[in-house]
Amino acid sequence: MKCDLSDIRHSWVVIFMILLFFSPTDEMFAQVASADTIYNHSYDWVAGHREALPEWVFAPRQQDRVIGVSDPCMNPEAARIQALQRAAYLYSLQEGVHLNLLSDVFSSTDTAVNTYEDERNKILTLGVIEQTVRREAYRIEEEYTSAYGEKFIQVSFMQADSCDLSYHSVSELMFLFTKERVEEEEIKFNLLLESGNCPEESFQSRFQMKGTLMSPCILSCMNGVPIRPSQKGYWYEDTLCVQSKESVDGIELKGGFWSAYMASFVKSLLLYPFSNVDVRRVSDEFNGGNKSSRALYREKIVTFLSISPFVKEIRNNRLYMDWQITEQQKINEK
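The chain above was modelled as a monomer; its predicted structure follows.
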């Protein structure tokens, strides 16, 4: 079946309009609530301080137990709520979520007589992970507050007749890769978390990462109030027992633990070799005289994933993670 390129462009316009509608804007993050101090708090630490995190942060995976981490410089109570939301999000990833991923890949090669080969590649990927409302009972097993105001909690989720927490999450991913003599990439990751104590008080937090994975710009807010990070940066001690000597680059921790955590997650998701990929070639041209070729094809992934994180180590203020991603089944769509 022949596919009109104008239809492709139209579909991308529709998708981008949807993403722009649901994605937080700078104006949304710029809202300032009157009770700003409910969420923000000032912390002061000695220059050169390196935070030593507790051993349970690096403990092996335990069934039904996850780690949640808040942003730095938060009020302790607000930080605990945010850390619990994020622990619930990671628990939902572990239990299994639906992933929809769509990639358009364009490549071209031009080779003139007695000249070099000019190769160009562009990849645009859009992805959505949505978790429907879940209701769980939970227990906080461990809790720690860093000198930067980050709240680390270890949470157990369990089946029970009572409901301690209801939560819902939507995470969106956009990745643009361009190679025209030099390689450039741009990512945008939005995470919306909503939770409440069944059924009374509710909280909404947004986390946005955009730019590059190595040096992202972070925006975070809770109930519309921006969380203001320190400009001094954050530093962490190396783990006592180095568990890995891999050459794979870790993620810089200067922007905080959770930011590096999510950057590592996005990187692992983009690099994962999915087995159930629906590939459709949209256009394919070849000109023998000029030795040029053009190709445009679309990759579509609709699957059910289980995603479990493991913090391997911290080395030279870089976070090394192992994200175990398992495809449980392929979802057939008509």
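The longest strand covers residues 117-145.
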